[in-house]
Predict the structure.
Amino acid sequence: MISIIARKEFLEMTRDGRFRWASVIVSVLLLAALLLGWQHQNDVRRQHEQARRHTRQDWLTQGRKNPHSAAHYGVYAFKPTMPLSWVDRGVDPWVGVASWLEAHHQNDFQYRQAQDSTAVQRFGELTGATVLQLLLPLVIVLLTFGAFSDERERGTLRQLLSLGLRRPDLALGKALGVAGALGFLIVPATLAGVLALALSEQNGALLADGGRILGMTSSYLLYFVAFLGVSLAVSAKAPSSRAALLTLLAFWIVNGLVAPRAAADLARLVYPAPSAFEFANKMDAAMKHGIHGDETPEQRAAALREEVLRRYNVSRLEDLPVDFGGIRLQAGEEHANTIFDHFYSDLWTTFRRQETVHRTLAAFAPVLAVRSLSMGFAGTDFTQHTHFAKAAEEYRREIQRLMNGDLAEHGKTVQGPYLQDEALWSKVPEFTYEAPDAGWVLSHQASSLVLLAAWAAAAAAAAWRAAATQRVD
Amino acid sequence: MLEAIDLSKSYNGSTALDSLNLKIEPGEIFCLLGANGAGKTTTINLFLNFIEPSSGTVRINGLDVTREPLATKKFLAYIPEQVNLYRNLTGVENLEYFTALAGGKYSRTELMGFLGEAGLPEGAAERRVGEYSKGMRQKVGIAIAIAKRAQALLLDEPTSGLDPKAANEFSELLLKMRDGGGAILMATHDLFRAKETGTRVGIMKRGCLMAVLNTDEIGHADLERIYLDHMHD
């Protein structure tokens, strides 16, 4: 019964010129978005690969110099492009993809694409995520707003129901018919995407990221089910097709255009983040006077001196068996690290709280949930950005420890300036970063997934109920 | 086959149907006459269970329609004033869809046979319904009823707007279905058709069934006179 209805809905749609045009346009946009994203990603990956090799090469061949100079020379850490980031670039264009790791500073990420773009581009960017989150729901609305109201207006609903048809069957059949039509748009694009992944340069990417692909696909499917359910419910209950269309367009606008903006503003209002200027100023002050503002650099220097003299049981710095300069530098690093940890953890907590606002508001707009999940599984959300940033910072500290340690140990063994070469530089391991797996993403995205699933279930139930209780004419 | 017992329906205090008692046996065509708003369509909607009765009982083949809304529809076919079909599907596709939803499985040839039986012109079956005339759509409606092997037919002014020839063909089909043992309830404005095809006619006014006449006992003129008498207050 249900399959008969679904088949007829599908047949009718494919004979409708409007649907044919819409599907051609959406397919072209979707494929173009994916193709552009894929190409962009391949470019970026190639550039990253090159830059990664260069920064390592530059580090190794920086020549003879003092280890602390080498620490100032620094290296770059590049965030690897995640295999699915071509579908959803997430926060990458805003937070940047590379960080300069040098002595004394935990630098912000650089190379933010958004800096190079005009404001217009920001809205017009065509990515797979835009098409899937905004355009496809619009297609769903256009395909289903008349599902019941149109049949009621044309009188076919009376005839259908006079046949002894169970009404929820009709809703389910219609949902499946639309799903079939949408499948025509989505499945080829998805297959093309998976194929592109399989063919891309990263060997084994497909297998390794099966979980992420599955997670992303399921998230979008739930999102579409939610939209389909809402559309069918509205169509069954609206007084006319026109009213159904207007209601659904309003929902689409609020969900896709208003909610993300409002959520961002609300999140900023409830959990304001400091401006970059303010943040840097406070951190500078803490560097000098400590987190509690109750110490001076001189006090710290004197305390360190005391401590080191006591440790080596000598009374003068000249009598130390090690180079005090190296020890002082490392102590400075460690002091700075506690400040960084304090301030960045505060900042990231604020950002995490802002994200929680977004995720909570997903109870009102499913796009907020799917956006979060999509970025999460694409590996381009803020949580995974901080995951990488922490790894890069860890690596920076490792370099500092190695350089300062070498300086402290050997600085005193030579007369005149202490210089080192590639023998030391190559002791610094190459930076490697292991991105978290799908399970990790899921554990951070559980609330979004639960909300999105709740949306889908509630929308399906609403469609079921609305179909069962709708007026005949 | 079709039975209404003390059947009433009121909307917000105004009575649309008042204690209707009616029994239509197999092989009978009962024509309901009356002005617009007399309660003819309300009666048909009650048989279809599209609306709930305020009081009384509606039965089809002995089953209460409010208790068994799906089972009772198995015996039914409904043809409205305007048979509405899916314009992007062909005649035979429409027939296939409606019969499949009613639980019937037929081959293409059988479906074409039903359309032929209902009098749809050769070649029209494969054309999209968007191009059909009203008469052709009514014939698809009849074909749906034939294919469903309906034992009871509910017709709501099925011939209004049809040209005389088409209306005549439609009446012929009704007589054939009656002879096949169908119980037919038809709401109509057409006194002439009612007299010609009906076994009995009922005259309704403001929700009340005022009179029931056997058509073989009266002439055209009598029917018209009685009808008009009832319409005057």
In short: The longest strand of chain B covers residues 14-24. Chain B has eight helices and ten strands. The mean pLDDT of chain B is 89.
